[in-house]
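Course assignment 3, question 2. Fill in each field.
Student: A.L.
Task: Predict the tertiary structure for the chain below.
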Amino acid sequence: MTGPEALSYAEAAAIIGRAAGRDIRHVNVEVSALRERYIKAGLSPDYAGFMSELDEKIKNGKENRITDTVERITGKKPRSLADFANEHAGRWRLL
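Answer field:
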């Protein structure tokens, strides 16, 4: 399920940063380092490998698409991340 726009990690971080009133940036992590972080967090090595490879594919545009699933299921148009972030700006500022 997606919102009304396909965003990169960097774009999403910038949107949340604007809502929070602070600089938030996405930092790319190499696949092998991400895999190790996932394992340290308790994921199995196989699942950690799958998730880190999936992250790399997403980073390279594999999921740059928009779906109509939200509207089909709820009958409502999806909100943009900016609208969501602005609505919850107080919570973003607490982090």
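Instructor remarks: The two ends are 26 Å apart (CA to CA). The CA atoms of residues 13 and 80 lie 14 Å apart.
Grade: pending
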